[in-house]
Amino acid sequence: MQRTSFGDMACSIARTLDVIGEPWSPLILRDVWVGMNRFDQIQADLGVSRKVLTERLNHLVGHGILERRPYDQRPRHEYVLTEQGTELLEMLMVMVAWGDKWLAGEAGPPVLYRHHACGEISHVSLSCAACGQPMHPGDIDLLPGPGAAQ
Predict the structure, then answer these.
(1) Which residues sit opposite 69 in a β-bridge?
(2) Residue 78 C-beta-side C-alpha neighbours within 13 Å
(3) pTM value?
(4) Residues 6+ positions from 57 with CB-CB distance below 8 Å
């Protein structure tokens, strides 16, 4: 099934969704992040069909999110995050914080995150790159940027 392409929209959210908006893509990125780098490992973890996984991996490699590296004499590959893919993980960490807060239920979060710098269990929160203060939707104004639609 052909999905709507958002890549040409003058909107960074739409353009990002064009790359990783399909539901399997963030889960594939998560698996690669935690060390499941080979096709069979990812397929076994997610239970996704081989056809869908092949399409998603090719899409993510084509967009520069993952890199395919050979690991065997035969044409077998493992997948590693590129710089772009690593930066996308920051967005996934924000999704984790939201899911832990609103969807974890009484059992609590399924995974805890220890920050290397301080050694504490924590979660991601957004802050202003200029002043360091917390940054929430009600704290900002949206202004047209240089790439805004005319």
Answers:
(1) 78
(2) 13
(3) 0.88
(4) 28, 39, 42, 66, 68, 79
